[in-house]
Amino acid sequence: MKQDNPDRLTAIAEMNWEQLETAVVQCKACPLYKTRNRPVFGVGNRQADLLIIGEAPGASEDAQGEPFVGRAGKLLNSMLQAIDLTRADIYIANVLKSRPPNNRDPSPEEVAACTPFLQRQIILLQPKLILAVGRIAAHYLLGSNDTMGNLRGREFKYSMGNIPLMVTYHPAYLLRAPREKRKAWEDLQRVVKLLRYSS
């Protein structure tokens, strides 16, 4: 994997929200800019206590430029509603800002190119809790290859800023495996407790 340009990293580390969003729109650090329709920067409350991080945009997200739309997004909205939250209360971002073709897993190079953007979003946001949804996001944020079964139900710390981090299933997975919705509900209950504890 090639090393990132230190000047680029320094520039991103000093950006405000507007500058960061412009940089994502103009980014050509990996080849995904050639195949995407729209970059997906992130959406929500920039003073939110809860940051939800997914893997990468899918087809609906790529078309609309917003994370978690389509069927998985509707399920996420319902999950939030179940704990008395809406999209206006939280912030949602992805590890990748551009859709990999055919929704394939992101390559290490693609993740490396987008990492400075997500890290800057986390620093600007300073959330009280990060919820990683899905295997790819969990593995990336924790630097782990452990199974979802072993990762969920535990509290971790995100290395940058020592922010509490929890893991749950991706809504798209829950649509394919509805039997796991009970476990996701348990995860959301833990999210509520942690947010209350940290406020």
- In spatial order, strands of the major sheet run 1-3-2-4-6-5
- Stretches with pLDDT under 50, minimum 5 residues: none
The average pLDDT value, as a whole number, equals: 94
Order of helices and strands: HHEEHHEHEHHEEHH
The total of beta strands comes to: 6
Task: List the main descriptive attributes of the protein structure presented here.
single chain; about 200 residues; alpha/beta; six-stranded mixed beta sheet; 9 helices; about 15% strand; globular
Concise summary:
This protein has a six-stranded mixed β-sheet with strand order 1-3-2-4-6-5, sandwiched between helices. The mean pLDDT is 94.
Write up what this structure looks like:
The protein has 199 residues and is of the alpha/beta class. The protein is built from 9 helices and 6 strands, in the order H-H-E-E-H-H-E-H-E-H-H-E-E-H-H. It has helices at residues 6-13, 17-26, 59-64, 70-82, 108-125, 135-142, 148-151, 171-176, 181-198; strands spanning 43-44, 50-54, 91-94, 129-133, 156-158, 163-168. The chain has a 6-stranded mixed sheet with strand order 1-3-2-4-6-5, sandwiched between helices. The N and C termini lie far apart (40 Å).
